[in-house]
């Protein structure tokens, strides 16, 4: 709060604008769940103006991994509102081309909604427009006139991009089910639109017939010259494009780079050396590293996070240059990858005592010994445990005296013996524990009674079942515990049971694919 604001001058219930913005931004932290913000719209005009600007900053955002689609009613309302913001010439153009907008209010909108746009997603726009046409009064068939859809999309994009926007994120999808983006001139109408971009996501993995996305190709080709101030660049495609390599090289302050590519990535890896002074986080997914070394990362002195997901060909050759690196990794993520033990040992040894978070699939005794030797300061640890590694893992846990979060997947048919020993070695710093079993009966009562760790959240998946007696014990234990606040159980029958200490209520519902509520 600024020094000019004095308590004596504040009216009852008044909050300074900067405090309101902090509160609203916190409520907006998940752009896919804005129900809390909607409740603030009717408080007063000042609140309404600030909340509206947040609600309309990312109206078309889509999360592919969670299958989150824009709700039909919401998307129709969004398109109607934007159409009401068009000028008379644009409205006449839509009508003249057979697009029925007669049912949309002709009143001037309360706000300049297009000016609030900060995040644009072409797939989300495509979904919204399809929903709008499906439910328009002159449509009783499932086939949408593609020319009308393209015209409406281009008209709305021109509306967006002629605004004086504080535009900072662009997400482009190339998918068989969606139309091409508007022409390059639409995106360059405002001279500073793309130059101010800070986040760029290019989802170009889907192959399509030649010429189908010529406008998108034109934009991507021009990006190295149009936007040079990216902080975050996420590229997903099958074959690396030279223009995207140039895009990587042309950035002034790239901090986060993610690449998902099954083709030759050597040019992209080489281009990262141009970002050596700024890169903090680098992620690789579905990358084939055979014959490729990470020498371009050696000079990235500020690198803190390095991730490999579903990658292949990770060998000692891949990591060898990084043994001389100056960076001090704090987070290392190697999950579902084809690696050699030499690669993992080198990565662990290089990270050494600076490593705070480690996520791994490999749990061989040799790897666990390396972690014990070189990485004593781990606070977050996620790993898969095999039968041959249980003793080594339990020994490692007893040495991780700073551990706060632990997630273990037990690749053991019956882990009863392991689970009986686990509470004895859990560090007294641990407050978050997630266990995933394979068809294992488990006595929760015995575990909780033995556990010395001050666990606040306990998540268990794959357990055979929890009877009423155990539910009763957990409820009573949580009430009496000074630390335990939440218990989440996913059993083998597909049921999810959640207990919150302060609500004193168990909730149960079926577990569906893609449901992330089972995560700690």
UniProtKB/TrEMBL annotation:
Transmembrane segments: none annotated. InterPro entries: F-box-like_dom_sf (IPR036047), F-box_dom (IPR001810), LRR_dom_sf (IPR032675). Residues 15-60 form the F-box domain. Signal peptide: none annotated. Pfam families: F-box-like. This is F-box domain-containing protein. It comes from Gigaspora rosea.
């Amino acid at each position: 709060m600024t020094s000019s604001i004095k308590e004596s001058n504040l009216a009852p219930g008044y909050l300074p604008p900067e405090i309101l913005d902090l509160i609203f931004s916190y409520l907006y932290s998940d752009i896919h769940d804005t129900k809390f913000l909607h409740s603030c719209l009717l408080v007063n005009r000042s609140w309404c103006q600030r909340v509206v600007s947040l609600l309309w900053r990312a109206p078309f955002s889509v999360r592919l991994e969670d299958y989150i689609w824009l709700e039909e009613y919401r998307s129709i309302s969004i398109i109607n509102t934007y159409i009401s913001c068009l000028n008379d010439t644009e409205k006449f153009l839509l009508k003249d081309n057979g697009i029925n907008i007669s049912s949309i209010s002709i009143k001037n909108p309360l706000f300049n909604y297009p000016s609030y746009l900060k995040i644009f997603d072409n797939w989300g726009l495509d979904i919204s427009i399809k929903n709008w046409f499906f439910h328009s009064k002159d449509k009783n068939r499932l086939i949408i006139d593609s020319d009308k859809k393209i015209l409406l999309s281009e008209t709305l994009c021109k509306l967006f991009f002629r605004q004086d926007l504080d535009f900072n994120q662009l997400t482009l999808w190339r998918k068989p089910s969606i139309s091409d983006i508007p022409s390059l001139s639409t995106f360059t109408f405002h001279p500073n639109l793309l130059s101010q971009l800070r986040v760029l996501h290019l989802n170009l993995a889907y192959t399509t017939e030649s010429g189908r996305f010529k406008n998108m190709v034109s934009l991507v080709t021009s990006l190295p010259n149009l936007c040079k101030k990216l902080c975050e660049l996420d590229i997903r495609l099958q074959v690396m494009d030279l223009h995207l390599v140039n895009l990587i090289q042309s950035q002034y302050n790239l901090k986060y780079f993610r690449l998902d590519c099954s083709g030759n990535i050597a040019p992209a890896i080489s281009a990262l050396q141009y970002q050596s002074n700024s890169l903090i986080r680098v992620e690789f997914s579905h990358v084939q590293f055979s014959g490729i070394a990470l020498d371009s990362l050696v000079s990235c002195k500020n690198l803190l996070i390095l991730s490999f997901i579903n990658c292949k060909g990770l060998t000692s050759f891949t990591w060898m240059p990084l043994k001389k690196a100056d960076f001090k990794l704090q987070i290392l993520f190697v999950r579902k990858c084809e690696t050699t033990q030499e690669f993992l040992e080198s990565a662990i040894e290089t990270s050494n005592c600076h490593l705070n978070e480690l996520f791994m699939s490999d749990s061989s005794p040799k790897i666990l010994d390396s972690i014990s030797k070189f990485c004593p300061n781990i606070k977050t640890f996620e790993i898969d445990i095999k039968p041959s590694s249980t003793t080594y893992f339990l020994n490692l846990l007893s040495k991780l005296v700073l551990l706060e979060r632990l997630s273990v997947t037990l690749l053991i048919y019956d882990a009863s013996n392991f689970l009986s020993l686990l509470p004895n070695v859990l560090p007294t710093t641990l407050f978050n524990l997630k266990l995933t079993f394979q068809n294992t009966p488990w006595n929760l009562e015995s575990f909780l009674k033995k556990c010395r760790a001050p666990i606040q959240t306990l998540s268990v998946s794959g357990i055979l079942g929890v009877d009423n007696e155990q539910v009763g014990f957990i409820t009573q234990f949580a009430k009496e515990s000074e630390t335990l606040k939440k218990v989440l159980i996913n059993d083998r029958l597909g049921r999810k049971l959640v207990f919150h200490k302060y609500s004193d209520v168990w909730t149960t519902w079926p577990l569906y694919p893609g449901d992330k509520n089972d995560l700690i």
